[in-house]
Fold Phage terminase small subunit.
Amino acid sequence: GINVETYDRVRALELLGRHLGMFKDKVELSGQVDTSNPYAGLTTEELKKLIHGG
C-alpha cells in the first residue's frame, strides 16, 4: 500500500515555540484569598496540645 504522511509545519513550529517559552499566554485571575490564621493567638504549648489530640 501507499503510506502518506503529512506534517503541519506551522503547527509544529508553534508547539516548539510554546515549549521553549517564546509565547506567553495571558491568564487573568481575580478573587480574594483568606489568609487569616485561626491559630495565631495560641501559645506553643496550646499548639502542641492540639497536635497531640489533647
About this structure: The helical segments are 9-19, 44-51. DSSP finds two helices and no strands in the chain. The first helix runs from residue 9 to 19. The mean pLDDT is 90.
